């Protein structure tokens, strides 16, 4: 067993991560530190500009650039119909232009994580990156990039299932870039997280 010195790679301050933490903020220099079996390393955190002053929280996400390639899509009733034609056309059109994907990485329940992932999948936002404010202390990330991709796959299926043709089977593949660690401002109302990041929608809904 290899023992790791839990010190920030940037300022050497002591770190006290919880058992399931993957990325934490150094309490001294605020650097994002990735915890790996082989050691600790700094992560280039992409901080999104807030749309409101003094957001309640800063939340970690894994971001990917990539492409969803749909090999086949089968509906419950696969006969030719207007609903099937519209759904197939909408599906092909959307995945031809969708290229940005964001997955929640903090300790959040699966339904909310899936909901946020689908929302960001549909809106395809471009976030304005800023220098990290002193107040932008993000919640620890507990989801690894490989697990984030699994959640993304689930979101893609549920996104397609919401179309009007009663999805039965979907075969697709993902071509993803290396993950990018994003920190987005947010607030929680009635137990639901709402993002407060400045963004532009790359494509209309």
Itemize the secondary structure elements and their pairings.
Elements: E1 23-25, E2 32-36, E3 39-43, E4 45-48, E5 57-75, H1 82-97, E6 100-104, H2 110-123, E7 125-127, E8 129-130, H3 145-161, E9 167-176, E10 180-189, E11 192-195, E12 199-201
Parallel strand pairs: 4-10
Antiparallel strand pairs: 1-2, 2-3, 4-8, 5-6, 5-9, 5-10, 7-12, 10-11
Helix pairs in contact: 2-3
Provide a quick synopsis of the model.
The chain is an alpha+beta fold and 205 residues long.
What would you note in describing this structure?
The chain is α+β, with helices and mostly antiparallel strands and 205 residues long. 23% of the residues lie in helices and 36% in strands. It is built from 3 helices and 12 strands; from the N terminus they run E-E-E-E-E-H-E-H-E-E-H-E-E-E-E. It has helices at 82-97, 110-123, 145-161; strands at 23-25, 32-36, 39-43, 45-48, 57-75, 100-104, 125-127, 129-130, 167-176, 180-189, 192-195, 199-201. The strands form 3 sheets. Strands 4, 5, 6, 8, 9, 10 and 11 form a 7-stranded mixed sheet that branches. A 3-stranded antiparallel sheet has the order 1-2-3, with no helix packed on it. A two-stranded antiparallel ribbon has the order 7-12. Helix 2 packs across helix 3 (145-161). It is elongated. The mean pLDDT is 89.
Features of the shown structure:
seven-stranded mixed beta sheet, 205 residues, alpha+beta, 3 helices, 36% strand, three-stranded antiparallel beta sheet
């Amino acid at each position: 067993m290899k023992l790791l010195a839990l010190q920030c790679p940037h300022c050497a301050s002591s770190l006290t991560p919880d058992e399931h933490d993957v990325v934490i903020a150094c309490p001294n220099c605020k650097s994002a530190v990735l915890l790996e079996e082989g050691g600790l390393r700094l992560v280039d955190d992409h901080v999104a500009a807030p749309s409101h002053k003094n957001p309640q929280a800063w939340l970690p996400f894994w971001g990917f650039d990539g492409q969803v390639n749909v090999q086949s899509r089968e509906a419950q009733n696969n006969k030719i119909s207007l609903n099937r034609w519209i759904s197939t056309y909408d599906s092909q059109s959307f995945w031809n232009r969708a290229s940005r994907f964001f997955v929640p990485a903090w300790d959040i329940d699966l339904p909310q994580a899936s909901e946020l992932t689908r929302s960001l999948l549909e809106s395809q936002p471009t976030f304005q990156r800023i220098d990290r404010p002193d107040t932008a202390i993000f919640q620890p990330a507990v989801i690894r990039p490989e697990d984030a991709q699994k959640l993304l796959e689930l979101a893609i299926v549920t996104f397609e299932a919401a179309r009007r043709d009663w999805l039965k089977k979907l075969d697709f593949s993902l071509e993803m870039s290396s993950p990018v660690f994003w920190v987005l401002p947010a607030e929680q109302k009635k137990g639901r997280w709402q993002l407060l990041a400045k963004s532009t929608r790359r494509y209309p809904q």
